[in-house]
Specification:
It is a single chain. Helices cover 33% and strands 19% of the residues. By secondary structure, the protein is α/β, with parallel strands linked by helices. The protein folds into 2 domains: 112 residues, Leucine Dehydrogenase, chain A, domain 1 (Rossmann fold, 3-Layer(aba) Sandwich); 135 residues, Rossmann fold, CATH 3.40.50.720. Strand 11, helix 8 and strand 12 form a beta-alpha-beta unit. The longest helix is centred in the last third of the chain and has 18 residues. It is globular and about 55 Å long.
Amino acid sequence: MLLSEFLDSEFVAKPFVCVLGYPVSHSRSPAIHNAALACHGIPVKYHAVACPPAEFHLIPGLFALPGFKGANVTIPLKEKIVSLLDALEETARRVGAVNTIVPDTRDGHVKGYNTDVYGFMKPLERFGNIASATILGTGGAARAATAGLIESGCKSIYLVSRTYRVHEMATMNPDVVRLVTYDDLEQALRGSDLLVNTTPVGMHPARDRSPVQERLVPLLKHKIFYDIVYNPAETKLLQQARSEGAKVIGGLEMFLHQAARSFELWFGKAMPMELVRDVVIASLDENEATA
């Protein structure tokens, strides 16, 4: 549902949270959050709300609604939406991107949080310290991944983009982070322990696409590969990495951990992780069956 349609719908008459982005039809956030809300008996509904560029100006009206209890933010709004917020918590300020918005019921102000850093780093804990990494993409999720890796002591990070984005250096550590294009990907992969895909390439419905050329896939052998795309659960690049014996992390892990932190910020309660994991896997299996 478009934001303009949502604002005119019956849904806004009751307490709600939502995910804002464009597109959002692929999102499984409503499924897991509504399951968690029902589990705790919280009378709030979670909706997927599409916000194309032409409707960005409508977002403050959403925040002002009495029933607004919070929002997640996804591609391509994580950085742009910062300009509409009254305050940022420290991680969001440092990263320059927001994926969670929490309203203050006392004064109506809205505060931006970044739970992507926590969500990204949690599944990596089992691998110990990461010395070097290559990150595909330079958007909000890439900023979160970079911030988390720097905090954990990573000494070398290649940020790979189709074009050089010099302004990214303003919030990154220039002693650790190097911005390169895909022409340099082979060199970056050879010098990295970890490869992270933060681009939407391979996301449903374009599940047959991969951001890494076939000839470079053997370079993933014995490395750690992390694809933050969670729909489908097994992307083409994840399959390629697994075939080379890479240690793999699917996007479902980051998705669930960042969602749990968002849920706690909104409602002060723990997300029932096993329940929501089952819910999202079932929804992805259903998606697979109808693809």
